C-alpha cells in the first residue's frame, strides 16, 4: 500500500447485490461475470483518475482526489454495467456509496471514521443505486454531472452509525432511479427507542410453505431469460393468503438478476385509469412514462410498455391486485398477454379469485388469456395445519384452534396472533380491531385517518387529517399495522384497512373525509387528483364537491377509454344532481347514458336517457328531446327490443319534423335507415339513407354523412349492388380523416359483418383484426363483442372449429347483454357440437332461438334457423328441418336476401322439402341444388369453406369423390357427417370403412 492519496479524499465503495443468489444461479459462469464486472469498474475508475485501494470478493474500495471525478466514475460504471450483456441473461447490479473525508493514512491503508462511513453508506444502497453522503454532495453542488443529478433522500439512521446520515442519491438519466428506502432503515426520521424493533410483526422474511411457488416463479424467470421469450403468470388466491408477500419475496430474491417493475391497483370504488401503470412508468421512465402521464390510449401504453420490456435483458413486471384494476389497465394487460412472448419479461398478475363474480370485468381478460400460450397459472393455497402451528408456537397459542378459526389464512392468523387477546378472535375484523385496540389513543386516531384514504396516505395529507397525532406514526409502524410506501404510509393489508374503516363512527368518518377533500383539493405539488377527490367528496356526502369532481373524473376516464369508470363517475354525480338546473341534469344523464351504451349496459343507458328526455320535455327543448329519442332507438335495438326501437325512431321523427330541418333530423333519418338495414330491408334502408345523406350534405354535417353512407354501403354490398363496398370504404376513410371515433367503429363493424355474411374472407381478413385492435384500444366493449362473434362464425365456416369455440366463448365471458353477438356465438357453439357429434348441441341453439325470434329480423333469425335445420338433418330428423326453417325461409324469400335464401333452401332440399332452386339463392347453394356437385365443391373450396365443400362432394355418385369427402370430414372431426358418407360408400359395396351409426335423410 504505497502512493495513497492524502488530504481530502473521495471514497467509492462498490458491492455486487445478491452475489450469493447470483452465484447459485450462474454456477461456474459466476466467475466470468465477476471478472467482467471488475474490468468494467476498473476502466471507469481509471478513466477518471481514481485508484483502486482495496478489493475483497465482489467488493471494491476506490479513492479519488476529486469528488466530481468519483461521481463521474460511478456514473460511467453504472451505465456500462447496465448496458453489458451478462451471462445466461442474468443481470448484475452493483451498489455504490460515496463519501468525502480526510482519512488517516498508515502502512496498512486508510483508516478512520471516514472509510467506515463510506462503507455504511454503500451498505444502505440497493443494487444499481449510488448513494452519497452530505459531505460529498456539498462538494458536488455546482459540479457538472453529465446527465445525472442529485436527489435528496433526507436523513436516515444507518446501521452502526451514531447519528442520522443525510443521504443523497445520484439519479443517472436512463437508469433506474426509484428504489425502496435505504437498506437497513426501518423508517425515516429519529431512531426509535429501544425495544421498538422487536415489536415489529411483519415477518416477511420467513414465508412458510412457499418454496414450491417460489421455485415455479424462478423457473419461469430462468426460462424467460434463457429464451428471451416472455411469460405471464396468473397468481391467484383468497384475500390474505399471501400473494403479495410471495411476489415481494420473489422480487427481493431476484432483484439482482432482473429489473423489477411493480404496480399495484387501488381499492377505490371507481379506480383511477391506468393506476398501477403509473407506478410502473415512474420506475421505468422514458417513453413509457411520457405516454402514461399524458394519459395515452391503452394501445399506445401497451406499445410503449412492450418497447420498454424489449429494451432490457430481463424484467419482472408485477401488477398486484388486478381484481381492482380499471378498464384501461385491463386493456393494456390483455394486449400485453397476447404479445408477451416477444419480449424478455416475466409478468406476474395477482388477483383475488374469491372476489370475481360472473360479471367481473377481469373475467373476460382471464378467459382471453387462458388460451395464450405464454400464460400459466399459480394458485396460492392457505397454509397447512403444520404451518399454522409454526406461527402459533412462539405465542403459546393452541394451534388447532388457530387453524380452525383462520382456515390457514396467513393474514388472519398473523392478525389473530398480533391481537394478543386471551381468547382467539372469531373473525378477521375482530382480530384487526383487537390489535388496533392495543395502540395509544392518538396512534389509534392516526390509524383511522389512514383508513379513510386508500390506497395510501402521503405524510402531508396525514398531517392535515390527524394533526399532532402524526407524532405517533412510529407507534403505528412498529405495531406492524401500517407500512411505508414510496409516497407515504398505508395499511399493511387492505383487509385491515377495511376493518378499521368500517368500525369508524359515522361522524368521525365524515369529518375525516371532509378534511381529506379540503387537503387534496390543494395539494402541495402537482395537479389535484380527480379520482381521489371524487371519492372523498362522495364519502363526505358533499354534493357540490361531487358535482365538481366526479364529472371531470368521468370525462378523463372516457378520454382514456375507461368507459366503465366514466359511467360510474357520472352515476356518482347524478346522486347529487337534484339541486342542479334541469339542463345540467340532462347533460349528466346523457353522458351517463352514452358511457353505459358503449360498455353494453343498455338497461342503465336507457334509464338515464329516459330521464334526460323528461328534462328536455320539461324545458320544452324539442330539438334535444327528438335527438335523445333518436339515441334511444339505437340503444333499444341492442338488447333486441326492435319493436320499441322502431317506435322511438318514429317518435323522434315526429318531434323533429315540427322544427326547421337541422342536423338532429338528418341523424334521425340515418337512424331510420340503420334500423331498416338491420332488418334486411334493402329498399327501406337505401331510401331513408338517401334522405339522411341529402340533408346532412346540405348542412355540411360530416358525422351524419358518414353514418348514412355506411348504412347505404352495407345494404348495397349485402344485396350485391355494385358500389356498395366502395361507399362503405369511403365512409371509413372519411370518418378516419375527421377523427370520428364512433363512426370509424361503425364502419369497421359493418365491413366485418359483410365479410362474415357474404363469406368474403378476403374482406374479413382485411378488417376484422384491425377493427378488434381499434376497439380494444378505445375500450369500446359493445362493438368488441360483435366482432368476436363474427370472428367465431368465420372460423367455423373456414373449418377452424376449436378457434371458433374459443372466440364464441369469449363473448360469454362477460355479461353481454346485446343479443346479436350472443345469438351468433350460441349458433357457433351449437353447430360445432352438432358437427362433431358432441352431446347437447340443442341447448345453445334453443337459447339462440329465444333471443332471435322476438326481433323478427332476418339477420338474427336466419343463422339460428339454418343451424337448427343442419342439426336436425344430421340427426335424421326431416320434420325437424321443416320446423326449424319454415318461417325464416319465407322471410328470407320476401326480403330477397341471397345467402339466407340459399342456406335455408339448401337444408330444406337436403331434407326433401324443396325440389326447385329458389330465385335469388347464393351461387354455391344454387349450383349444388341444381345437381352440379363438382362445381359446388370447387366453389366452396375457392371460398374457403371445407365442410361445405366436403358435403358437396358427398352428393357425387362417384366412389373417388365420396372417399375424398370422407377424408375431409374425418379431418375436420365431423363424425356424424362422416358416418353418413361411410354408409353411402358401404351401400356401394366398399369395405374396410368404420361403421357409421347415424341415419340421414338424404
Ligand atoms: N407463506 C406465509 N407464511 C407466513 N406468513 C405469511 C405467508 N404469506 C403471507 N403471510 C402473512 O400474511 C399477510 C398477508 O399476506 P399478503 O401477501 O398481504 O396477502 P394477499 O396479498 O394474498 O392478500 C402478510 O403480511 C404476512 O404477514
Ligand atoms: Mg395483496
Please explain how this structure is put together.
This protein has 1002 residues and is an alpha/beta fold. The chain contains 47 helices and 16 strands. The longest helix is centred in the N-terminal third of the chain and has 19 residues, at 29-47. Adenosine-5'-diphosphate (ADP) binds at residues 202, 207-210, 237, 239-245, 410-411, 414, 492-493.
Chart the SSEs and their pairings:
Layout: E1 9-16, H1 19-26, H2 29-47, E2 51-56, E3 59-64, H3 67-83, E4 94-101, E5 104-106, E6 109-111, H4 113-124, E7 130-133, H5 134-140, E8 148-156, E9 165-172, H6 196-199, H7 211-227, E10 231-237, H8 243-254, E11 259-264, H9 275-284, H10 286-293, H11 298-310, E12 315-320, H12 327-339, E13 345-352, H13 361-370, E14 375-379, H14 385-392, H15 399-406, H16 410-419, H17 428-437, H18 441-451, H19 459-466, H20 473-478, E15 482-485, E16 488-491, H21 494-502, H22 506-521, H23 530-539, H24 543-559, H25 563-574, H26 582-598, H27 602-619, H28 622-637, H29 642-656, H30 663-678, H31 682-699, H32 702-718, H33 724-738, H34 741-757, H35 761-778, H36 781-797, H37 801-813, H38 819-836, H39 842-852, H40 858-874, H41 878-895, H42 898-910, H43 923-929, H44 933-943, H45 946-953, H46 959-972, H47 975-987
Parallel strand pairs: 4-7, 10-13, 10-14, 11-12, 12-13
Antiparallel strand pairs: 1-3, 1-4, 2-3, 5-6, 7-9, 8-9, 15-16
Helix pairs in contact: 2-3, 7-8, 9-10, 10-11, 11-12, 12-13, 13-37, 14-15, 15-16, 16-17, 17-21, 18-21, 19-22, 22-23, 23-24, 24-25, 25-26, 26-27, 27-28, 28-29, 28-30, 29-30, 30-31, 30-32, 31-32, 32-33, 32-34, 33-34, 34-35, 34-36, 35-36, 36-37, 36-38, 37-38, 38-39, 38-40, 39-40, 40-41, 40-42, 41-42, ...
Bound molecules: adenosine-5'-diphosphate and magnesium ion.
Amino acid at each position: 500500500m504505497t502512493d495513497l492519496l492524502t488530504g481530502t479524499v473521495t471514497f467509492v465503495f462498490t458491492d455486487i447485490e445478491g452475489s450469493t443468489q447470483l452465484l447459485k444461479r450462474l454456477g461456474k459462469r459466476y466467475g466470468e461475470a465477476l471478472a467482467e464486472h471488475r474490468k468494467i469498474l476498473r476502466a471507469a475508475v481509471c478513466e477518471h483518475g481514481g485508484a483502486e485501494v482495496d478489493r475483497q470478493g465482489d467488493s471494491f474500495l476506490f479513492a479519488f482526489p476529486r469528488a466530481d471525478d468519483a461521481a463521474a466514475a460511478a456514473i460511467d460504471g453504472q451505465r456500462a454495467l447496465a448496458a453489458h450483456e451478462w451471462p445466461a441473461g442474468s443481470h448484475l447490479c452493483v451498489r455504490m456509496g460515496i463519501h468525502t473525508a480526510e482519512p488517516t493514512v498508515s502502512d496498512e491503508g486508510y483508516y478512520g471514521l471516514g472509510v467506515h462511513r463510506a462503507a455504511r453508506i454503500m451498505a444502505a444502497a440497493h443494487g444499481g443505486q449510488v448513494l452519497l453522503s452530505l459531505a460529498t454532495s456539498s462538494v458536488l453542488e455546482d459540479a457538472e454531472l453529465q446527465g445525472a443529478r442529485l436527489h435528496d433522500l433526507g436523513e436516515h439512521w444507518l446501521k452502526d452509525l451514531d447519528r442520522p446520515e443525510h443521504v443523497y442519491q445520484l439519479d443517472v438519466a436512463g437508469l433506474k432511479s426509484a428504489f425502496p428506502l435505504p437498506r437497513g432503515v426501518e423508517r425515516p426520521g429519529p431512531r426509535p427507542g429501544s425495544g421498538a424493533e422487536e415489536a415489529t410483526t411483519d415477518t416477511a422474511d420467513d414465508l412458510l410453505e412457499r418454496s414450491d411457488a417460489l421455485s415455479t416463479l424462478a423457473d419461469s424467470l430462468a426460462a424467460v431469460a434463457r429464451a428471451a421469450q416472455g411469460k405471464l403468470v396468473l397468481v391467484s388466491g383468497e384475500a390474505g393468503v399471501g400473494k403479495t408477500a410471495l411476489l415481494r419475496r420473489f422480487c427481493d430474491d431476484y432483484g439482482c438478476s432482473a429489473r423489477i417493475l411493480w404496480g399495484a391497483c387501488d381499492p377505490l370504488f371507481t379506480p383511477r385509469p391506468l393506476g398501477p401503470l403509473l407506478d410502473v412508468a415512474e420506475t421505468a421512465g422514458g417513453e413509457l412514462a411520457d405516454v402514461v402521464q399524458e394519459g395515452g390510449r391503452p394501445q399506445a401504453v401497451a406499445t410503449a410498455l412492450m418497447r420498454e420490456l424489449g429494451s432490457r435483458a430481463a424484467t419482472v413486471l408485477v401488477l398486484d391486485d388486478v381484481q381492482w384494476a380499471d378498464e384501461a389497465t385491463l386493456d393494456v394487460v390483455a394486449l400485453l398477454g397476447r404479445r408477451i412472448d416477444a419480449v424478455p419479461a416475466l409478468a406476474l398478475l395477482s388477483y383475488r379469485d374469491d372476489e370475481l363474480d360472473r360479471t367481473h370485468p377481469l373475467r373476460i381478460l382471464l378467459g382471453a388469456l387462458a388460451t395464450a400460450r405464454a400464460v400459466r397459472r399459480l394458485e396460492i393455497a392457505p397454509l397447512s395445519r403444520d404451518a399454522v402451528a409454526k406461527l402459533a408456537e412462539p405465542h403459546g397459542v393452541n394451534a388447532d384452534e388457530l387453524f380452525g378459526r383462520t382456515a390457514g389464512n396467513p393474514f388472519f392468523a398473523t392478525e389473530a396472533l398480533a391481537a394478543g387477546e386471551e381468547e382467539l378472535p372469531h373473525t378477521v375484523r375482530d382480530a384487526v380491531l383487537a390489535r388496533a385496540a392495543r395502540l395509544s389513543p392518538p396512534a389509534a386516531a392516526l390509524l383511522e385517518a389512514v383508513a379513510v384514504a386508500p390506497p395510501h396516505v402521503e405524510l402531508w395529507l396525514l398531517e392535515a387529517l390527524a394533526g399532532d397525532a402524526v407524532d405517533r406514526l412510529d407507534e403505528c409502524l412498529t405495531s406492524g399495522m401500517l407500512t411505508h410506501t414510496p409516497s407515504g404510509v398505508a395499511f399493511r393489508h387492505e383487509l385491515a384497512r377495511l376493518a378499521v374503516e368500517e368500525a369508524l363512527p359515522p361522524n368521525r368518518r365524515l369529518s375525516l373525509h371532509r378534511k381529506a377533500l379540503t387537503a387534496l383539493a390543494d395539494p402541495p405539488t402537482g395537479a389535484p387528483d380527480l379520482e381521489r377527490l371524487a371519492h372523498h367528496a362522495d364519502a363526505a356526502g358533499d354534493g357540490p364537491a361531487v358535482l365538481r369532481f366526479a364529472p371531470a373524473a368521468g370525462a378523463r376516464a372516457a378520454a382514456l377509454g375507461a368507459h366503465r369508470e366514466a359511467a360510474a363517475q357520472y352515476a356518482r354525480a347524478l346522486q347529487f344532481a337534484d339541486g342542479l338546473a334541469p339542463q345540467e341534469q340532462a347533460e349528466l344523464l346523457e353522458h351517463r347514458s352514452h358511457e353505459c351504451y358503449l360498455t353494453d349496459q343498455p338497461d342503465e343507458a336507457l334509464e338515464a336517457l329516459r330521464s334526460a328526455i323528461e328534462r328536455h320535455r320539461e324545458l320544452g327543448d324539442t330539438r334535444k328531446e327528438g335527438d335523445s329519442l333518436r339515441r334511444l332507438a339505437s340503444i333499444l335495438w341492442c338488447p333486441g327490443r326492435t319493436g320499441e326501437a322502431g317506435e322511438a325512431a318514429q317518435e323522434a321523427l315526429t318531434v323533429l319534423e315540427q322544427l326547421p330541418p337541422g342536423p338532429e333530423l338528418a341523424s334521425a333519418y340515418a337512424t331510420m335507415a340503420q334500423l331498416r338495414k338491420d332488418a334486411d330491408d334493402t329498399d327501406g334502408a337505401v331510401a331513408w339513407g338517401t334522405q339522411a345523406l341529402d340533408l346532412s350534405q346540405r348542412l355540411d354535417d360530416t358525422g351524419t354523412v358518414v353514418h348514412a353512407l355506411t348504412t347505404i354501403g352495407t345494404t348495397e354490398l349485402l344485396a350485391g349492388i355494385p358500389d356498395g363496398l366502395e361507399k362503405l370504404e369511403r365512409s371509413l376513410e372519411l370518418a378516419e380523416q375527421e377523427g370520428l371515433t364512433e363512426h370509424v367503429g361503425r364502419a369497421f363493424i359493418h365491413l366485418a359483418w359483410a365479410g362474415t355474411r357474404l363469406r368474403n374472407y378476403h374482406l374479413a381478413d382485411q378488417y376484422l383484426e384491425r377493427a378488434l385492435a381499434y376497439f380494444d384500444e378505445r375500450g369500446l366493449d359493445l362493438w368488441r363483442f360483435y366482432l368476436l362473434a363474427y370472428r367465431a362464425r368465420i372460423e367455423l365456416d373456414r373449418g377452424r372449429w376449436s378457434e371458433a369455440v374459443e372466440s364464441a366463448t369469449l363473448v360469454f365471458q362477460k355479461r353481454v347483454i346485446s343479443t346479436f353477438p350472443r345469438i351468433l356465438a350460441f349458433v357457433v357453439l351449437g353447430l360445432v357440437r352438432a358437427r362433431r357429434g358432441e352431446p347437447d348441441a340443442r341447448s345453445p341453439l334453443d337459447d339462440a332461438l329465444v333471443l332471435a325470434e322476438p326481433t323478427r329480423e332476418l339477420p338474427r333469425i336466419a343463422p339460428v334457423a339454418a343451424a337448427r335445420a343442419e342439426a336436425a338433418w344430421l340427426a335424421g330428423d326431416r320434420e325437424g328441418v321443416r320446423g326449424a326453417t319454415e318461417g325464416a325461409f319465407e322471410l328470407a324469400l320476401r326480403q330477397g336476401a341471397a345467402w339466407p335464401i340459399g342456406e335455408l333452401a339448401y337444408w330444406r332440399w337436403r331434407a326433401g322439402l324443396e325440389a326447385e332452386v329458389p330465385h335469388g339463392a347464393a351461387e354455391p347453394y344454387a349450383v349444388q341444388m341444381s345437381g352440379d356437385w363438382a362445381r359446388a365443391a370447387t366453389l366452396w373450396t375457392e371460398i374457403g369453406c371445407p365442410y361445405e365443400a366436403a358435403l358437396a362432394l358427398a352428393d357425387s355418385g362417384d366412389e373417388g369423390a365420396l372417399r375424398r369427402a370422407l377424408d375431409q370430414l374425418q379431418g375436420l372431426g365431423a363424425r356424424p357427417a362422416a358416418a353418413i358418407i361411410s354408409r353411402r360408400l358401404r351401400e356401394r359395396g366398399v369395405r374396410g370403412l368404420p361403421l357409421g351409426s347415424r341415419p340421414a335423410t338424404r
